[in-house]
Amino acid sequence: MPALEPPAAVRTTCPYCGVGCGVLATVANGRIEIRGDPEHPANFGRLCSKGAALAETLGHETRLLHPEIGGRHVSWDAALDHVAAELQRVRDRYGPQSIAFYLSGQLLTEDYYVANKLAKGFIGTPHVDTNSRLCMASSVAGHRRAFGADVVPQCYDDVELADLVVLVGSNTAWCHPILYQRMQVARGERGMRIVNIDPRRTATSEAVDLQLSIAPGSDIAFWNGLLIYLSDAGRLDWRFISDHTEGFAETLAAARQCAPSIQAVAAATGLDEPDIERCYGWWAETPRVVSCYSQGVNQSVAGTDTVNAIINCHLATGRIGNPGAGPLSLTGQPNAMGGREVGGLANQLAAHMGFAPEERERVRRFWSAPNLVEGEGYKAVQMFDAVARGEIKALWVMGTNPAVSLPQADRMRDALGKLELFVMSENVRSNDTVAHAHVRLPAAAWGEKDGTVTNSERRISRQRAFLPPAGEARADWWIMSRVAQRLGWRDAFNFYGPADVFREHADLSGYDNAGARAFDISALREIGDGAYHSLAPVQWPLRDQAVGTERLFADGRFFTASRRACFVPVRSAARRRPVDRPFILNTGRVRDQWHTMTRTGLSPRLSGHIAEPFVEIHPDDAARLGLAQGTLACVETDDGSATLRVLVNRGQQPGSLFAPIHWSAENASSARIGALVHGIADPVSGQPDSKATPASVSAVAAGRFGVMLSRTAMPAAGLLYWARARFQHGHVLHFATAGTDPIALPEGDTVTVEDTHSGIFRAAVFREGRLEAVALVSAHPTQARHDWLETQFARDAISDAERRLLLSGRPVAGYADQGPIVCVCFQIGRNAVCGAVAAGASSTSAVGKALGAGTNCGSCIPEIARIIATAHADSAVAAE
């Protein structure tokens, strides 16, 4: 009998960050295997912990499977008829500008294209924006001011070709770990230097050559100071400035006024003068330097100006568009760039065109658009403000959770109740936003989607389906096309598949272009369905008959009217802290979670490293406020409050707090950090200022702290604090109580142990010999450890003697306590790492060889390095 052929792997693209890693997906015998694509030029086979766990997020447990109106299951025809009729009613009664669309970087380019065409060309509303406004808008605005177009000039290869990489406002080791590992390889093999500029000392700081813990909000002074240093040191490229730029004299004058000396930069940034000089000297002496910046720059009231301050230094030295030299924006979302290509931002039309008369006429002709908008619409925060005012009557949200992610999220959530029509296209049946929708349309999820995305380096990759749609889920482009047809525009939206949409998108990119616009993929405008299906990753521009892509700006020609790059004068702006809000609240991501956890929250292993919402605070501030490690704190701003675990960390600056953005009302009692963020935005880009909200913090008194592991999710009513997570066999509930009231346990054979003197309570529940639930409660937060107990749920039966051990807090023989998870990819705990170090593993590579930890995505390597360093320091102290 001939051997069966192994199932073919489907090449697709990861749905998380803007790195855009290639993925190989294999489905066989009902089992899904996910691994990195070794041929994809973004990752060459590596995946981060989130990408590696994708197979664990593909079940139907949380999916929205059928169209619903008012919570009632209806047919697709009924749902689409209703949406079209209601949109028409609102448009007729209030005008097209009473309708808005809020999109997502999770959409494919084809979905984005149809949404923008429908809204801006046919319905006639300019109010179309995307959650990419929350992460990339300042970078876009800075590029447009400097280059005349929304263009990222550099490529990922440049971080390996550079001799110096400067990271700015980016915890790259956690947020873009695949790129971070590419940098680390170059650092190890070629001696490339890395400078990390960040107010926080993070995992990224563990493997750099210089950490600059800059004062929050002082980046412009730092980069203006670098420009003055370059000028005074004679390191400017005057030929490039003269031949290819404009506005340098005014920019240099503004910089000199802002940061005239190293001493002035030190005073503004809080950095030591020798460290500033060292960084400036390296930058001046290194022709091949790449400056990588991300949300710490973009999510600021001065984000656009900071982007231009960075670009100014590259323009002044001619270090742009060259191998290993230039500014590189690290994107937060998988298709933030693809959405911008089709006009997903409120201040753009399609194909990177704006609202100049000739551009509007070009798009109108191409689309035969009857109602093309005349100007830009409301940006994200403005859009939801208009909903709150009652100005916007109908809103269609696709693939995002604004009731959690927007600033002033409580206010934004409450505003949804004022809508006459609220449509959600989503793949989950429940989140903080879906709960308010009048119409819920089941959208295809990753693994079912078919289309393209564009990553941070302008590389278009295919997302291919390898699973059938769940229930009645449909592609977003299909949903909108059918609504458009019902509104009377059948011919304009008669798309038969994603390739059909892509061809039109590519054709528009080259329409009346002739090299005038940077974005051009017109070489693909006649791509056949088969070629589209097999399309390999490709970078734009990709013009007629093009085989490859030239390096942008290598010829010194830009996309402004003069074809010269523009220097932009920027100045620092002072901030005041209210007396009653003495802290600055910074927000961001953690290593193993994504956005509001509607996907990553389904993976048990991704909760192994950090399972609860927290606030990070400097030890001096914690001591002054009576906050101990693991206790609870209330963080409060003028817009909201949250109750969070305390994480005392010297990497946090005094007077500053850090809290992650991921938790929502679905998985925590009070941890919606967006609700705390103030409504201030960058005046140029409209991007929210998510890194610097004035805040106060105070201790929350708790009677007892506990953790419960259960096969079924347990109710959390009446608890002072709670946070849910997954483990392999069920659910984890971390909690705190106000007093000593008994906790609710599932039904079964219950065994308990309680020591009233120490405040320790333990309980285990069994059914038919199997462990059903276990609870550990203590007066002290650090005593509620449960790592080793998870293994006991895999056992068919537990003896009476072993049950007593469970309640004693000691591991059962044969089930070692690994300690808190360090390496999520291979589920390696801290105790195992410490054991390997004690056995002689003196480097991260040696630990990797012994355990496998750190050999996949590498995002745990900084933590492993800290464990090794601590062990060596302890050994040195003991030797003394």
Salient structural properties:
880 residues, alpha/beta, N-terminal domain of TfIIb, Rossmann fold, 5 domains
Structure report:
By secondary structure, this protein is of the alpha/beta class. It folds into five domains: 10-57, N-terminal domain of TfIIb (Single Sheet); 68-130 and 340-539, Rossmann fold; 137-329, Dimethylsulfoxide Reductase, domain 2 (3-Layer(aba) Sandwich), CATH 3.40.228.10; 704-808, Enolase-like, domain 1, CATH 3.30.390; 821-879, Orthogonal Bundle (Arc Repressor Mutant, subunit A). Helix content is 30%, strand content 19%. The chain is built from 27 helices and 34 strands. The strands form eight sheets. A seven-stranded mixed beta sheet has the order 5-4-16-15-14-6-7, sandwiched between helices. Helix 3 runs parallel beside helix 20, helix 3 (109-123) crosses helix 21 (498-510) and helix 4 packs across helix 14. It is globular.
